[in-house]
Amino acid sequence: FELETSLRLGIDRGELRLFYQPQVDLDSGEVIGAEALVRWMHPERGLVPPGDFIPVAEETGLIVPMGSWVLRTACKQIYEWGQMGLKPVRVGVNLSALQFKRQDLAAQVEGLLKEFSIDPSMLDLEITESAIMDDVDRAVAMLNRISALGVKLSIDDFGTGYSSLSQLRQFPFKTLKIDRSFVLDIDNNDGDAAIVSAIIAMAHSLNQSVIVEGLETEQQLNIMRGLHCNEMQGFLFSAPLPAEKFTELLQAGR
Ligand code: G
Ligand code: G
Ligand code: MN
Ligand code: NA
């Protein structure tokens, strides 16, 4: 109760912040994307990580207004980086299941693309398997509408859900994000390496690009290169950064 009330107030008072974690192309070594990750700047408690409030936001439905704020802020950021003359980077935004159920997400996204006149392919919506599997038909229709706008769609935390290949094939995903649990121990565990290798082969055969999440060591990076993974995201390159720090990173790479 306490958390719900203060989170509700916090959203209204502008206490949410978006951090951006770089995504690096493994061929060129360049930063070509970022995942937007929300944090709550609490006046007394300081920076609260999403694991401490996203579950409450999902239970209470607060994730819907919060998600709208995140989506809008990410689009505004894409616009602002464009105004600064920086190299365009694709921004990934996490979506919760409720944002599909409670809202016309396609209309909302279309409105934001117009409002900020941004290149639709610079927006990448990340969705988990579990978020779309309870109503596959509705999810397919909604995602097709969003995809038709030119926005990218990624399947997040891949490997942790229960979707079948034939179900996944119905969705217009451009990118598959391999969950970090599969790479934690990949340099010692041949089973994990075999799974990751199979996931990458499957994604490529569906013309999907692959991002591996949670890379922390050079050894993991070398293995993922050998498996022809396309992009990486992880502490090895950078933790999620405040917008100003990510802007500096883009400026330094110019
Ligand atoms: O940033 P961090 O690794 O602590 O994030 C923890 C979890 O919170 C991740 O699973 C991430 O998907 C989720 N998360 C972060 N930002 C958002 C957001 O804006 N919307 C939703 N729905 N989940 C988010
Ligand atoms: O949306 P998703 O569940 O994929 O959220 C990504 C989460 O993973 C974020 O909370 C981010 O802070 C976290 N993360 C990103 N890179 C690393 C990493 O290299 N190691 C660990 N332990 N966590 C990471
Ligand atoms: Mn994600
Ligand atoms: Na993930």
Description:
It is a single chain. The protein has about 250 residues and is an alpha/beta fold. Helices cover about 45% and strands about 20% of the residues. The chain contains 11 helices and 10 strands. It has helices at about 1-10, 55-60, 65-85, 95-100, 105-115, 130-135, 135-150, 165-170, 190-205, 220-225, 245-250, and strands at about 15-25, 30-40, 45-50, 90-95, 125-130, 150-160, 175-180, 210-215, 230-235, 240. An 8-stranded mixed beta barrel has the order 1-2-4-5-6-7-8-9, surrounded by 5 helices. The structure holds guanosine-5'-monophosphate (G) (2 copies), manganese (II) ion and sodium ion.
What labels would you give this structure?
binds sodium ion, about 250 residues, binds manganese (II) ion, alpha/beta
Tell me the layout of helices and strands:
Elements lengths: L1 H11 L3 E10 L5 E12 L3 E3 L5 H7 L2 H21 L6 E5 L2 H6 L2 H12 L6 E6 H5 L2 H13 L3 E7 L6 H4 L6 E4 L11 H16 L3 E5 L4 H9 L4 E3 L7 E2 H10 L2
Parallel strand pairs: 2-4, 4-5, 5-6, 6-7, 7-8, 8-9
Antiparallel strand pairs: 1-2, 1-9, 1-10, 2-3
The chain binds guanosine-5'-monophosphate (G) (2 copies), manganese (II) ion (MN) and sodium ion.
In percent, how helical is the residue content?
40-55%
Helix/strand class: alpha/beta
Largest sheet: 8 strands, mixed, barrel
According to DSSP, the number of beta strands is: 10
Alpha carbon gyration radius: 18 Å
Termini distance?
Answer: 47 Å
Provide mean pLDDT, rounded.
94
Number of helices: 11
